[in-house]
Amino acid sequence: MNDILVFELQNGVFKQNSNKTISLIKNNECEDSYLFPIIHNKDRNVILVRHKHHIYLIRQLNDGTFDILASLNSQTTDTYGTITNNAQYLVFWDNKSNKYSSYEIQYI
Hints:
mainly beta, 3-stranded antiparallel sheet, globular
């Protein structure tokens, strides 16, 4: 699976909204790992998600759909990280290079 599925509460039942599915970069050569938290920053209206080799910064648009603002290929599934509380910096550990990396996130 290389998508993020969106479910919405309708009459007390969660139902998939296929119009809001977020398509990610396809990679069938590796499995995903659960050791990178999904983080939602309400102030910046962004969601940080790592899926397989890529770290994504996603924004929900006014119409309720989602847009991928940026993606970063870490070239490994052994990546663990977070964004700062103000969502200004991304920091992650990369087991492939055995080092921390940090990026300033610039919003347009």
